[in-house]
Amino acid sequence: MRRALSPARAPVRTLAVAPNWVGDLVMAAPVLAALARSGRSVALLAKRPLHPLGALLPGVAATLDGSGDDAEVVARIAAGGFDEGVLLPNSFRAAWRLARAGVPRRYGYRGDLRTPLLAPAVRRPRGRRPQIEDYRELLAALGVPPPADWIPRLELPEPLAAAGRDRLARARLPTGPGAPPLVGLFPGAEWGPSKRWPMARFAELARELRRRRPEARMVVVAGPKEVWLAVRVHEESGKLHPVVGPDLDLAGLAAVLARLDLLVTNDSGPMHLAAALGVPTVALFGPTDPRRTAPAGPGHAVLWRDLWCSPCFFRRCPLLHHRCMKGLSAAEVASAAEAVLDRRAT
Length: 346
Description:
This protein has 346 residues and is an alpha/beta fold. The radius of gyration is 22 Å and the shape is globular.
């Protein structure tokens, strides 16, 4: 007698609460992919500007709007009927929203007075290690095998990749086989001015690279909040290098970054985004710690002064001298950029 087949079990519906910063969300990509590989259906709760990036992350099946007041967000979460929540940020508010929405299992690290709202609460990892590995214990609590490696990786769908090529072509910067190398300059850092290499140094770097590598082309990359910085770099470097990016969402910015041969950047979201797309970077660090948040993967160059006061993690230099960033010369950064371009060419 033939046995009746039992109905297939529905996958566990998991809501992952996204960090608020672009770079932090990129660094969480291996965790989201690991959750999906375990058979879960993963939705991402994120602020609306992060949704285009969330749609590119491997393993994310849907995005849920985390913008608005708490009552609206709690109602959206409750309507999703999630079996569990995974809290990537360590905020009290994230745990409170999931508890109010009635999500039965809420995995997150203890602390910030939120331990009673977690079920279960996971002990925070100790010691210093790259931030991309901070969720190792969270995955263990969920019974999810860790990823084979912790390097975030993004792949763009062909229509989006083509849009990036077209956007640069409109700026008279063709890319692809036979095109000269294209170097992006990103002078911004949304976290605060202490992360920013001086704007005048970016302009000096553009002039220095033109002298050393006359065949290379450059583009000043910017988001909506970095327009004035990008325009100043454009003007002070001779008005030769177009500004691209202020009108793009994060997916469009990713499509532009993916066409670069090198990005020279402060410690920023675009730095992590470029690294996840396989684009080498020259990353300029000052008040933050590259041992924690350096771009992941091979081929990058990190420049850091490591002064007695570094890393301080202040948004503005409390000593007013800002030597951690001002101590990096345009010639030093240009040499690092040349070395990365040479490695890429071979």
